[in-house]
């Protein structure tokens, strides 16, 4: 059996872990791993491998042997000359490319579901969000037929106004979605309307992007200000449709306070 | 009104024809003493009805007639199933109906470039089969025998030679050029309407992402053979056509069309920055300056303006490409977008192709008046009271008026101040060629009016947004397409720092190595 030098072994282990990261994230999970995160992980991996490979004094010596030989062994003069030329050049190139100015877009952080204010103004009125309820929700039990009709009306409002961005499957992939930044919300996702009260939705729909608080970058959101285009009743009906179509239930205040 | 009327007429005609066909088939089968075997994969129409009611009624209507609220704001409108006429079919050209598999595929994969989504992620194959069975009942098609598949002959693989052949056939007698334009960008020379009277646009063949089926050569072959029923896209397998194509020729044309797909000016979502390079001397004065070809481009999606009155839902332009160069004094931005029509009010041909009320084509650049220091920006739709924006707006002119550029300062949709572009030294000029507008916009870097104009500063990421108008598609005023905020960056000269640092790092490493080697050899000695 051929014995792989320990130094090469260490390099191979690190390379294997590096490739594994790329495969797991980029291919299996389909989510490209950010360079900064990868750098951090690899730092720990290299440190770990180094520690394992230098655990005993002998193993440390074995690991260092090829390097030591390269510097000290007179028979290795040819290789030494190559390495002594290549290393400084690599260092210079690395520094050069790192010093070039970057043309990346500035990073913009935003919170997607900002805390709502306690009261909001819309339709020339003030609403107390902690007590606001969908006036049509009660028909779900009291008059299912009427409720179904209201949901239907909500659906028609939805396809005529909202599907362009949020999509007819309510998955945030409407025909215009790809041109928007931030992208429209996906209501099928359990992280959106399933976590929210109907009053929160009313606020978000009525006042749109410009009605968002600072931390949610209101200047970027292309969500229209729907009080300009829809009536109060229409907004409540659309909300019924969103929950009905996705099968999610709105959160109630009782749940929220638990 | 007229739409419904026309539909009734056609519907009765169709019903009769189909009834007769069914009868003939029935008697034939009776006389032969056999019963039609039920197709192995027929779905269950009743089960389909349930899914339909939940998922499809919104656009296609409870009765399949597409007379829905949604239809008013969609172009193309949702399919009217009572017609039984479908765009995508792989049966022979003289067979009116698609196969179940064609319908299955359209429902599963959807129709890109329209509101019709693919349903594969929410519906099972079984459910889709059931839907196919159900939508056929709207036209009494459930008894219809599926037609045989068209003859594909032997597929000719794409090659430079085949593409060359295809190109010749594409141009010969204006065969495809007549509607799809010299470069295939769909720059119509005619105003086209579908059978029901809706506006249709010939496909821009360089944009495969907007193909209803796909730009795979086999799909293109199929479309060329059968045409796109209900639209003016003709069937070139029709022996009665004086521009008909043989099977072999159709493969060549398909390979050519497939080769037209854009590779350069396509949207790369990760690229959100227009990078302006610094030039020595002056910035380009014309759209044809060869330096543009060497300048990196950034392409963005255009979407309809639906945040402010009056909203607009039926866009025709879908992407815009920007390039920029700057000098010590000026910046030049080249905007490029495919527009099927050169909309010049007063021009007879242009008016004929246009929707009624032709308007000028146009493009606009939006920039903040002050480059934001923090993360806060003006509202992307025409700014806001705290953060006003500059809008540089170029228009294509009429037969009486030349091209023009205007300047606006806006604090929201309702608060717009019109200013003199000339005083701020903004100039713009555009050229329309083969389905593409190329417009060059220029301005000095420094603001003419320090209060009201943006000062363009090297090395800073500056928010930028774009808008475009297709005047033949009833786009005017607030009816237009636009982008959200992206960035423009005047790339600073690199300077000497990187090279000095690199030399330093190189010497340092070399020095350390040398020192190590020295100490090692002295130790040994």
CATH C-level label of the largest domain in chain B:
Mainly Beta
Instruction: Provide the residue-averaged pLDDT of chain B.
Output: 88
Let me know the average pLDDT of chain A: 88
- In spatial order, strands of the major sheet of chain A run 1-2
Return the structural class of chain A. mainly alpha
Compute the separation of the termini of chain B in Å. Answer: 105 Å
Please give the count of helices of chain B.
11
- Reported by name, the CATH topology of the largest domain in chain B is Immunoglobulin-like
Helix-strand topology string of chain B: HHHHHHHEEHHEEEEEHEEEEEEEEEH
User: Low-confidence runs of chain A (pLDDT<50, min 5 residues)?
Assistant: none
The total count of strands of chain A amounts to 2
Question: Which CATH architecture of the largest domain in chain A?
Answer: Orthogonal Bundle
The radius of gyration computed from the alpha-carbon positions of chain A, rounded to a whole number of angstroms, is 30 Å
Q: How would you describe the shape of chain A?
A: elongated
Task: Give a written overview of the molecule.
The complex is a heterodimer of chains A (258) and B (525). With 258 residues, chain A is mainly alpha-helical. Chain A has two domains: 6-99, no CATH class; 119-256, Cytochrome c-like domain (Cytochrome Bc1 Complex, Chain D, domain 2, Orthogonal Bundle), CATH 1.10.760.10. Helices cover 53% and strands 3% of the residues of chain A. Chain A contains ten helices and two strands. Chain A has a two-stranded antiparallel sheet. Chain B is α+β, with helices and mostly antiparallel strands. Chain B folds into four domains: 37-137, Orthogonal Bundle (Cytochrome Bc1 Complex, Chain D, domain 2); 160-259, Orthogonal Bundle (Cytochrome Bc1 Complex, Chain D, domain 2), CATH 1.10.760; 273-493, Immunoglobulin-like (Sandwich); 499-525. Helices cover 27% and strands 17% of the residues of chain B. Chain B is built from eleven helices and 16 strands. In chain B, the strands form two sheets. In chain B, strands 3, 4, 5, 6, 7, 8, 9, 10, 11, 12, 13, 14, 15 and 16 form a 14-stranded mixed beta sheet that branches. Chains A and B meet through helix 3, helix 4, helix 6 and helix 7 of A and strand 5, strand 16 and helix 11 of B.
């Amino acid at each position: 059996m051929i014995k792989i030098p320990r130094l090469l072994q260490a390099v191979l282990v690190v390379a294997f872990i590096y490739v594994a990261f790329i495969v797991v994230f980029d291919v299996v999970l389909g989510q490209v791993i950010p360079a900064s995160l990868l750098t951090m992980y690899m730092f720990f991996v290299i440190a770990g491998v180094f520690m394992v490979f230098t655990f005993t004094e002998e193993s440390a010596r074995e690991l260092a042997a090829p390097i030591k030989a390269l510097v000290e062994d007179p028979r290795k003069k040819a290789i030494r000359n190559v390495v002594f030329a290549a290393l400084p050049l690599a260092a210079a190139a690395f520094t050069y490319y790192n010093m070039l100015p970057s043309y990346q877009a500035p990073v913009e952080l935003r919170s997607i579901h900002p805390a709502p204010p306690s009261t909001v103004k819309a339709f020339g009125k003030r609403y107390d969000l902690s007590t606001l309820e969908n006036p049509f929700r009660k028909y779900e039990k009291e008059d299912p037929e009427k409720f179904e009709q209201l949901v239907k009306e909500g659906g028609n409002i939805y396809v005529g106004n909202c599907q362009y961005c949020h999509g007819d499957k309510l998955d945030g992939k409407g025909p215009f979605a790809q041109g928007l930044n931030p992208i429209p919300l996906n209501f099928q996702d359990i992280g959106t309307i399933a976590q929210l009260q109907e009053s929160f939705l009313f606020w978000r729909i009525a006042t749109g992007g410009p009605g968002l608080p600072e931390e949610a970058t209101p200047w970027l959101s292309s969500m229209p200000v729907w009080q300009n285009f829809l009536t109060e009743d229409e907004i409540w009906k659309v909300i019924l449709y969103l929950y009905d179509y996705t099968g999610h239930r709105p959160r109630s205040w009782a749940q929220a306070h638990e | 009104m007229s739409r419904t009327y026309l539909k009734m007429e056609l519907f009765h005609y169709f019903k009769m024809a189909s009834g007769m066909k069914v009868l003939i088939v029935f008697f034939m089968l009776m006389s032969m003493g056999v019963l039609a075997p039920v197709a192995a994969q027929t779905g269950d129409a009743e089960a389909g009805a349930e899914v339909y009611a939940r998922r499809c009624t919104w656009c296609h209507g409870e009765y399949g007639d597409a007379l829905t609220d949604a239809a008013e704001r969609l172009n193309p409108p949702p399919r009217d199933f009572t017609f039984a006429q479908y765009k995508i079919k792989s049966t022979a050209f003289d067979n009116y109906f698609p196969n179940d598999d064609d319908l299955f595929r359209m429902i599963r994969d959807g129709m890109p470039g329209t509101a019709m989504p693919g349903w594969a992620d929410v519906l099972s194959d079984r459910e889709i089969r059931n839907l196919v069975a159900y939508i056929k009942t709207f036209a009494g098609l459930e008894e219809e025998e599926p037609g045989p598949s068209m003859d594909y002959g032997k597929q000719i693989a794409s090659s430079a030679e085949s593409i060359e052949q295809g190109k010749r056939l594409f141009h010969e007698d204006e065969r495809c050029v007549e509607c799809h334009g010299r470069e295939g960008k769909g720059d119509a020379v005619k105003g086209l309407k579908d059978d029901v009277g809706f506006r249709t646009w010939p496909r821009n063949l360089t944009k495969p992402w907007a193909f209803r089926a796909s730009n795979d050569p086999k799909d293109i072959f199929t479309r060329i053979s059968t045409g796109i029923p209900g639209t003016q896209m003709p069937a070139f397998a029709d022996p009665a056509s004086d521009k008909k194509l043989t099977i072999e020729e159709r493969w060549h044309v398909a390979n050519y069309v497939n080769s037209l797909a854009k590779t350069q000016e396509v949207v790369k979502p990760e690229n959100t920055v227009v990078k302006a390079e610094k030039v020595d001397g002056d910035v380009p004065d014309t759209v044809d300056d060869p330096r543009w070809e060497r300048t990196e481009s950034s392409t963005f999606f255009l979407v309809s303006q639906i945040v402010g009155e009056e909203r607009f839902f039926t866009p025709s332009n879908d992407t815009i490409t920007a390039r920029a160069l700057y000098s010590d004094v000026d910046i030049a931005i080249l905007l490029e977008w495919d527009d099927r029509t050169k909309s010049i009010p007063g021009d007879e041909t242009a008016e004929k192709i246009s929707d009624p009320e032709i308007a000028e084509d146009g493009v606009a650049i939006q920039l903040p008046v002050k480059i934001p220091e923090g993360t806060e920006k003006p509202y992307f739709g025409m700014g806001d009271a705290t953060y006003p924006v500059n809008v540089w707006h170029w228009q294509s002119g009429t037969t009486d008026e030349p091209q023009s550029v205007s300047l606006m300062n806006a604090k929201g949709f309702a608060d717009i101040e019109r200013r003199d572009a000339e005083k701020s030294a903004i100039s713009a000029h555009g050229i329309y060629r083969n389905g593409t507008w190329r417009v060059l916009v220029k301005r000095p870097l420094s603001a003419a009016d320090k209060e009201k104009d943006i000062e363009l500063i090297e090395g800073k990421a500056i928010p930028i947004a774009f808008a475009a108008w297709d005047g033949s598609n009833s786009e005017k005023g607030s009816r237009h397409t636009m982008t959200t905020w992206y960035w423009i960056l005047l790339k600073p000269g690199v300077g000497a720092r990187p090279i000095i640092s690199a030399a330093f790092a190189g010497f340092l490493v070399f020095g350390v190595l040398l020192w190590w080697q020295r100490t090692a050899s002295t130790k040994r000695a």
